[in-house]
Specification:
Shape: elongated
Pfam family, one: DNA_processg_A
Strand order of the largest sheet: 1-2-6-5-4-3-7-8-9
Largest sheet: 9 strands, mixed
Protein name: DNA processing protein
Distance between the termini: 54 Å
Strand content: 5-15%
Organism: Desmospora profundinema
Helix content: 40-55%
Family: Belongs to the DprA/Smf family.
Number of helices: 16
CATH class of the largest domain: Alpha Beta
Oligomer: single chain
């Protein structure tokens, strides 16, 4: 504790809650000689080039009672914070030119101590993209990777769900506060991540999503990770920003190839042209890190594939990359709708098929 009765961690975390205090403000204040366990002096404000309004706001707000209140409030809401000075701060993230001064989290922070792989992609994936994301994530967590993504609609959500369903580790980095659910339809995924995985953000709790926050979020996704895997991306996809950050940070960049006729694969196909590694399985990713002595992925034993009858096998062979409706399957099999539906129900129980709205079905994995 400093003479003021609080330590520099609590002081830094508290001042970060004040409106207008971001990464650059903290950087300028600390470079000016301010110590977060001591009051801000006039020379600090002048040296840091703070505006009169921000200086007044900090002087008014940043009090011992406010610092205690912030610490208590985070504890009450099960939100933890890591500062750049903490030993537990992720080592790879610390190497960035502008590492977050503070990371806020909900969930199991220890999963960041394992090797991380970023998995990102379009918000509007095709069926092919969803299947590729699910397959690769399942293989990756079996190798020991922690899957990092942004909890966005589309590939991000598929990556998190795939990791959780495979019993693996996954972390979501948000472009808002860790207590804000965005997109709103991902509330159940958010709750599961908080309970079984990890939710992270550089933004103080309560921060609402804003376009300017997402590129900052993307640099953290890639910064935490040893590699960045892009599953599907249009030519102007936001996920390509994450890949660009990865390249700048010296990370390995991987891409899943797709049909040249698919808009959603133009970005990934272009990445491959530019030197990203083409990925057909998680083994393609693992082999890029075989030279590391500190960690080598070990493939876990795969679950046994459920046995299927000849009829079930015939039905499964009718599934391609796109969903198929019930009547089409009945016509191809030459069987009544009721019989086909019964076979499909058995395949769903075995985890080989999933039903979609409109009496359509798709093959899993």
């Amino acid at each position: 504790m400093g003479k003021t009765g609080w330590d520099r961690r609590d002081g830094l975390i508290a001042v970060h809650q004040i409106q207008g205090v971001g990464w650059h403000t903290l950087d300028r204040m600390l470079r000016a000689g301010w110590k977060p366990d001591a009051p801000v002096a006039g020379e600090h404000e002048e040296e840091a080039g703070l505006s009169v309004q921000l200086s007044e706001r900090i002087r008014e707000k940043w009090t011992p009672s406010f610092i205690r209140h912030v610490a208590h409030e985070l504890c009450q809401r099960n939100i933890w914070a890591l500062t750049l000075w903490d030993e537990e701060y992720p080592a790879l993230l610390r190497e960035l030119p502008q590492p977050p001064w503070i990371l806020y989290g909900k969930g199991d922070g220890s999963i960041l101590q394992h090797p991380c792989l970023a998995v990102v992609g379009t918000r509007k994936p095709t069926t092919y993209g969803k299947r590729a994301a699910s397959m690769l994530v399942t293989e990756a967590v079996a190798q020991g990777w922690t899957v990092v993504s942004g909890m966005a609609a589309g590939v991000d959500g598929e990556a998190h769900r795939g990791a959780l369903e495979a019993g693996g580790r996954t972390a979501a980095v948000l472009g808002c506060g860790v207590d804000v659910v965005y997109p709103k339809h991902h509330r159940s995924l958010y709750e599961r991540l908080a309970a079984e995985g990890l939710i992270l953000s550089e933004a103080p709790p309560g921060t609402q999503p804003h376009p300017g926050l997402f590129p900052q979020r993307n640099r953290i996704i890639s910064g935490l990770s040893m590699g960045v895997l892009v599953v599907e991306a249009a030519e102007r996809s936001g996920s390509l920003i994450t890949a660009d950050f990865g390249m700048e940070q010296g990370r390995e960049v991987f891409a899943v190839p797709g049909p040249i006729t698919s808009e959603q694969s133009r970005g990934t196909n272009r990445l491959i042209q530019q030197g990203a590694k083409c990925v057909l399985s998680a083994e393609d990713i693992a082999e890029e890190f075989s030279h590391l002595s500190g960690w080598c992925p070990v493939t876990k034993a795969k679950e046994e594939t459920p046995s299927v009858s000849d009829t079930e096998s015939r039905l499964l062979s009718l599934f391609q990359d796109e969903p198929v409706d019930l009547e089409h399957l009945a016509e191809k099999m030459g069987c009544p709708l009721g019989e086909i539906h019964g076979i499909l129900l058995t395949l769903q129980v075995k985890g080989l098929v999933r039903q979609l709205p409109g009496a359509r079905f798709e093959r899993k994995g």
